[in-house]
């Protein structure tokens, strides 16, 4: 078949068939009868929040068009206009390569937290992190009271993925000239974060290093240590095909991806004082919302059993973090539109013209923690959680490595 299309007179039509895997869906709200989406028409039958099974097949038609050179040039310009995390100065692949090299020198690393065996029946679990260039926005907005919560969250959320209860936290605060009032605000946030995670601020280091940082700026890092019984460690080894992925909502960007966020902000022409498009707060307020500390919620769920693996969604997003808890040969099928994506991510993607794949590998997209559970536990957790903490069924474990997305 031929027809005219722009400067070209060739058209190749091909028909492909796409089979969407069977999905085991858990829905928290028993009143929901259909998940509305412009591209999703299947009805979700719900009865008291339990699992409803259905099979789904769809056929889609793909039209492959030959493209004139002018269109190819426009496409190349369009691709060049799209921002990536690497464009903003962060190379995730290089970071992963460094971890692999370190693992050769120190075998056993690579988890969210490091386990150290104690004499007896327990492991110490340790983690360390910072808050990245979110600090730059703290300097610009003057919001220093909550950056310490972010600092604690990044470490305690990592170690709780092993099922460990945080015991204590240590901080490091460095600046060129010590502003006592500013430092006090930061430390107060750290204290708040420790209270939220039920651990002790055991100590820290304050380093004053003239000429090392710009005036009024500082850097912070943190270190958390927890404990877990050896027979209670959550390590993902028992994860199997068909297990359910439950997502705990994030408060926003949390503390990853801010190099790209800042590049998007510069491109957008907006200021941190402008209102977030589609939101009710300013951009500064939306971006500086502190990271959720999941410790108490997760440990409560762990105590009830059925949790096989936990992934903290930080740098690397869904793409790199969820597979870290899987045995070899297993992957994740994520249900698109199965949770509410905060408006800040829509703005970031639109203003930065960022591809879906890049968004999913850079940001948490509204899910800060993913629990891998068996079907029975998923039913119980979702039913028990009605009316309290929000939670979403976001996918399931499938055969084949990697993360795929399905409607």
From TrEMBL:
Phosphoprotein found in the keyword field: no
Residue stretches making up the PurM-like N-terminal domain: 116-228
GO terms under biological process: 'de novo' IMP biosynthetic process; adenine biosynthetic process
Keywords, in A-Z order: ATP-binding, Ligase, Nucleotide-binding
Annotated GO MF terms: ATP binding; phosphoribosylamine-glycine ligase activity; phosphoribosylformylglycinamidine cyclo-ligase activity
Keyword Metal-binding attached: no
Cellular component aspect of the GO annotation: cytosol
UniProt domain PurM-like C-terminal: residue ranges: 241-404
InterPro entries on file: PurM-like_C_dom, PurM-like_C_sf, PurM-like_N, PurM-like_N_sf, PurM_cligase
NCBIfam families per the UniProt record, alphabetical: purM
UniProt family annotation: Belongs to the AIR synthase family.
HAMAP family assigned to the protein according to its UniProt record, in alphabetical order: AIRS (MF_00741)
Protein name: phosphoribosylformylglycinamidine cyclo-ligase
Organism: Coffea arabica
